[in-house]
Design brief:
The complex is a heterodimer of chains A (about 300) and B (about 425).
Chain A (H helix, E strand, L loop, with lengths): L1 H9 L5 H34 L16 H7 L2 H33 L5 H14 L3 H10 L5 H8 L11 H14 L2 H13 L2 H9 L4 H29 L3 H6 L13 H11 L3 H29 L5
Chain B lengths: L1 H20 L16 E8 L2 H17 L3 E8 L1 H13 L6 E4 L1 H8 L21 H5 L2 E2 L2 E2 L1 E7 L1 E6 H6 L11 H14 L5 E3 L7 H10 L15 H17 L5 H10 L11 E7 L3 H8 L3 E4 L4 H4 L5 E8 L6 H13 L1 H7 L5 E2 L2 H8 L4 H12 L16 H13 L5 H19 L1
Parallel strand pairs in B: 1-2, 1-3, 8-9
Antiparallel strand pairs in B: 3-11, 4-5, 6-11, 6-12, 7-9, 7-10
Helix pairs in contact in B: 2-14, 9-18, 11-16, 13-14, 17-18
The chains are: A mainly alpha (about 300), B alpha/beta (about 425).
Chain lengths: ~300, ~425
């Protein structure tokens, strides 16, 4: 309300609507500038480049749909899709379950809630950083802390990030560990559920588990949905962890070849920027498809209490 | 109305395409020295020591050429190539570029490097040997000048040999001798150390050497892939047998060692007693571990003389440079002047210019001394062809296949054929 009066005040000379618009646009200018110069511009450029054989050093030549037809026979691309899907489909449900479980425990009113909340949130702030990936690499190396710990228990460790069977699992664990940000959102969601529902449920003799299934979960579905969409998009775009842990190779033996890492290797390692641009657009389509399916499916399980 | 808007949008994108196309290379400035103040950019990859020495050399150059200011830019290996590709694409390439053998043809073939023959008034290459200069030539055009020379060597940890009572081998050993020594070391140490690292398949040099031992070459002179899959497969079979017997460290340890770099790898930390490295890497290896390390000839070389000199790196000048004459003067200073050699020493490899090599020989440290002795004593075959355009990804590619073989995901023969196919595809696509 006060903002509107202010705008009116600014526009006191002459016809007001136009002037108000101008002022609004002026305030939005930095955002527009960012949108057009560093988001839409490069996106448009990469869309055009995806139909060329651009190699960074020579002028781009139009190559039609060649980049896209090449994807069909590209074994490493298929491998990277396999790695990325595994990562998304395993780490996101695991991360969200852990986040929800801890949010419920904390919501019970633990002493020192603020402290625990911060502690659990910390990995989310650090998880995608280079420093943590480097640390992770040292902790899970053959001579790392994790194996030292196992050694104390009499278990023989292994090179968790240097063997193809366990390398991806280690990166999934790293992602699950950053459960803090969905947890904080779950906590906020739990606080929104009116206490009277629980009172009514317990008066009817519902056990805690019954209350969770019949009260908490249905009322929390919009939050679960929100977290799911966000974390899936986030997981598809993972890059830093795999890049640092494998030294940019996606190794050992391509077992951690994330989609984004492969895209980066094509574009910058092999001067294959036209193809890399096409790969970027395929990723956009895949993420778009997942999100669309998510929204479509939400009709059947998300309950809006309004 | 709506449709017209969309069409207009498509029209605008079509206009944008020539703009993007201009991201190629544009011509640089005239080949003559200016009287005006000139600023050059010099770029290299490497660690802090290199940066300190290069900055000192730049200062020495600037004091001889008061109107030229040189701005140094340096990065680590991986970031360096990303930055060089993108700045070149943006027509903003540094004037003088430290170049590697793997990337030389990728840049040279695409017209982004200056033909140094055009700069011959300012850059004198007469002190260099013909074979050295040839390593900087693509299809007869001199795109780069080698800075230093390196050669693959076998590094042995004499302390570990003494500790476990294994006799130090001599330079005439064969691959069978090598395997026997590796197994003996593992056995006598009771598994505390492994005899050797994987003996090849982590870089182009080891593959090239193995191929030459078998009368084969990775590339022909005209840039075709000529590597024989059976030869490559035999290298992996040799290593699989040693992994099995314990003479070579486990594949997982090998992956970790590679990730840790030369100063943190298995050889530097004493987890293995023998390994392969470039002769000039003896300096960081000695500094890292403090063990008694020595350079031996590669197994099989006494008989076949298959080893070869690899330029450790080159100087090249961007074809986009506004000041090619000044850039050539700077390169001339770096490779031909004693004032520069005094500062730079052997940090970028044993100087490829024989006059400078002799000049720095007098005050070399232990590692430098060992590296020079090795280079001079090794028997070499003919020079190897320069990696063709499209072959810059050789190292990560061969590492990936080696890991697949060592972890049992593919048989050596399958992997060798797939590797050669992939390498050919990359090179054909770039041509």
């Amino acid at each position: 309300m006060s903002a509107t009066t202010e705008l009116r005040h600014l526009g006191k000379h002459g016809s007001t609507a136009k002037r108000q618009n101008k002022t609004a646009f002026l305030f939005l200018l930095p955002w527009f500038l960012g949108l057009f110069v560093i988001t839409l511009g490069p996106m448009l450029a990469s869309l055009i480049l995806s139909f060329t054989d651009y190699n960074l050093l020579q002028p781009a030549e139009f190559s039609g749909l060649e980049n896209f037809s090449r994807m069909l026979g590209d074994e490493r691309l298929h491998r990277s899709l396999g790695v990325t899907f595994t990562y998304v489909l395993v780490s996101v449900p695991a991360q969200l379950s852990l986040a929800l479980a801890l949010a419920i425990v904390l919501d019970r009113g633990v002493r020192g809630l603020a402290f625990y909340r911060s502690m659990f949130y910390l990995p989310s702030l650090l998880g995608a950083s280079v420093a943590i990936a480097v640390l992770w690499r040292m902790v899970f190396g053959a001579d790392g802390l994790f194996n030292d710990g196992l050694g104390l228990l009499g278990i023989e460790g292994r090179g968790w990030i240097s063997e193809p069977e366990t390398a991806l699992g280690t990166l999934i664990t790293l992602n699950v560990w950053t459960f803090g940000s969905p947890m904080v959102i779950f906590l906020a969601g739990l606080r929104q559920i009116p206490a009277m529902y629980y009172e009514a449920a317990s008066a009817d003799g519902a056990s805690r588990w019954r209350q969770f299934l019949s009260v908490t979960l249905p009322l929390l579905t919009p939050i679960i949905f929100f977290n799911l969409v966000l974390q899936i998009i986030h997981a598809f775009q993972s890059f830093t962890q795999a890049f640092i842990v494998s030294g940019g190779t996606g190794g050992p033996a391509d077992s951690t070849l994330f989609y984004t890492l492969y895209l980066y290797q094509r574009g910058f390692g092999n001067f294959d920027m036209g193809y890399a641009s096409a790969l970027a657009w395929l990723l956009l389509l895949v993420i778009g498809a997942f999100t669309a399916i998510n929204f479509w499916a939400s009709k059947y399980w998300v309950f809006y209490n309004d | 109305m709506q449709r017209r808007l969309i069409l207009r949008g498509i029209g605008a994108s079509a206009v944008a395409l020539p703009g993007l196309a201009a991201c190629g290379t544009a011509g640089g400035g005239d080949m003559e020295l200016s009287d005006e103040p000139v600023t050059l950019r010099l770029t290299w990859w490497g660690a802090d020591t290199r940066a300190e020495l290069t900055d000192q050399a730049i200062a020495a150059f600037e004091s001889e050429h008061p109107n030229i200011t040189v701005k140094g830019e340096f990065k680590d290996w991986a970031g360096y190539w990303d930055a060089l590709a993108t700045t070149t694409a943006a027509n903003d390439s540094p004037d003088v570029i430290q170049m590697d053998e793997l990337y030389l043809a990728s840049y040279g073939d695409r017209g982004t490097l200056l033909d140094l023959a055009d700069a011959s008034d300012y850059l004198d290459t007469s002190a260099f040997e013909e074979a050295t200069l040839a390593a900087g030539r693509i299809d007869g055009t001199q795109y780069a000048i080698p800075i230093g020379a390196g050669m693959l060597a076998c590094v042995v940890n004499a302390d570990l040999f003494a500790q476990y009572g294994v006799e130090l081998p001599d330079d005439t050993w064969t691959w069978d001798d090598y395997a026997a020594v590796a197994d003996e070391l593992t056995e006598k140490s009771g598994g505390a150390v492994n005899g050797s690292s994987v003996t090849g398949g982590t870089d182009a040099g080891s593959i090239r050497y193995w191929a030459r031992l078998h009368g084969n070459e990775v590339y022909s002179e005209d840039g075709e892939v000529t590597l024989d899959p059976t030869v490559l497969a035999s290298l992996w079979e040799y290593n699989l047998a040693l992994v099995e017997s314990g003479g070579v460290e486990s594949p997982a340890q090998s992956v970790e060692s590679q990730g840790a770099g030369i100063e943190g790898g298995s050889l530097a930390t004493g987890k293995i007693a023998m390994g392969f490295a470039y002769n000039t890497q003896i300096t960081p290896l000695l500094a890292a571990g403090g063990a008694d390390l020595r350079l031996l000839q590669l197994p099989g070389n006494a008989e076949a003389a298959a080893n070869f000199v690899k330029p450790s790196m080159y100087w090249a000048i961007s074809s986009q440079s506004e000041h090619p004459a000044e850039a050539a003067t700077l390169v001339d200073f770096l490779v031909n002047h004693e004032a520069a050699a005094d500062i730079l020493g052997t940090e970028r490899g044993i100087p490829a210019n024989p006059a400078m090599r002799e000049h720095v020989a007098a005050d070399l440290d232990e590692g430098g001394r060992m590296a020079v002795d090795y280079l001079e004593s090794a028997a070499t075959g003919p020079a190897v062809a320069v990696t063709p355009n499209g072959g810059s990804g050789f190292d990560p590619m061969i590492q990936r296949y080696t890991q697949e073989v060592l972890f049992g995901e593919r048989t050596p023969q399958e992997a060798a054929e797939a590797f050669i196919d992939e390498l050919k595809t990359e090179i054909d696509a770039a041509a």
